[in-house]
Amino acid sequence: MAVNNTTTNFNKVGFVNRGLVYKFKLTETGGVSTGLYDVKIYSSDTFGSTLLLYEALSIDPAANSRIYTDTLPFFYTDDDETAELHIRFVNHDVTNNSTFTIAITSEQFA
What we know:
The protein is globular. The chain has no helices and eight strands. The protein has strands at about 5-15, 20-30, 35-40, 50-60, 65-70, 75, 85-90, 100-110.
């Protein structure tokens, strides 16, 4: 859940410690956002600025049928070694809450 006008950090369990992400897809599955949002992926659950691995800023939820897709590959490393995906979601919509589903295609490295 992305509460209106807030920043939310969460850790998706069951991901990988090291891998190459080929496709990142974010689909709005609840609510109807009217404001922009940002999504950022970090290498640790401390979410420090030096740990930023990926970011997409000012995503327009109304574009592309409420689906954001990026196929620019990036290397993911979980510095915590907990096999979690560390995500920060910034909802700039001052009125509406939304729910999103994340789908990632990646190749795991040992």
